Task: inverse folding
């Protein structure tokens, strides 16, 4: 009787859930596409179907990464938030010993953003304006961003020796946010100069009050 033939075991099939999981780059493509559309057209004007079409992905892939449109909006704002603070931190690190120079440098790069031809305002402000509901998750992200801006400006105001750092921080926040929403009415060549001169005047007055 011939020896029994050795049967080769077939490799185990991958779990269905793992096989269906899209690669990580799909998430980034969806988020890249949605971010561009949200910023250029406004969040309410952009539907999930348009994102799917332009990202060239299946709708199931989008919902696997972003179960709701609100999740996609929050991811968009959180990425904008990280980008903004990464730039802020890099500038702050270069002027750690000189708060006046740091404040001026921040107004410089913010002014450069205002001067971009494709600039459409602060994403956080834009989205907060579209969603009036206090409990909307997008508003929570936008509110946290604005609170962080004021807190960081307060730190600079304290280092500047302002008599009332809270007040100066509030004034600076008002100027910066006002610049964000006023960019369409500022000529590109003047955006940085206008922002810097306004902030310098406020800082000088605050320091004079402390003398």
Result:
């Amino acid at each position: 009787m011939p020896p029994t033939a050795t049967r080769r075991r077939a490799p185990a099939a991958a779990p269905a859930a793992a096989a269906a999981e899209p690669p990580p780059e799909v998430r980034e493509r969806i988020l890249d596409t949605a971010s561009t559309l949200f910023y250029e057209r406004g969040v309410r004007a952009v539907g999930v179907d348009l994102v799917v079409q332009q990202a060239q992905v299946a709708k199931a892939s989008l919902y696997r990464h972003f179960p709701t449109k609100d999740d996609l909006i929050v991811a968009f704002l959180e990425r904008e938030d990280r980008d903004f603070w990464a730039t802020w931190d890099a500038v702050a690190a270069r002027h750690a010993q000189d708060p006046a120079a740091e404040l001026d440098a921040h107004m410089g790069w913010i002014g450069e953003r205002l001067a971009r031809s494709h600039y459409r305002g602060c994403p956080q402000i834009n989205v907060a304006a579209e969603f009036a509901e206090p409990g909307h998750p997008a508003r929570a992200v936008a509110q946290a961003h604005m609170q962080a801006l004021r807190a960081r400006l307060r730190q600079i105001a304290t280092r500047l020796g302002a008599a009332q750092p809270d007040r100066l921080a509030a004034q600076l926040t008002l100027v910066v946010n006002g610049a964000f929403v006023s960019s369409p009415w500022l000529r590109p060549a003047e955006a940085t100069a206008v922002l810097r001169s306004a902030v310098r005047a406020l800082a000088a007055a605050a320091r004079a009050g402390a003398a």
The chain has a mean pLDDT of 88. The chain has ten helices and no strands. The CA atoms of residues 39 and 123 lie 7 Å apart.
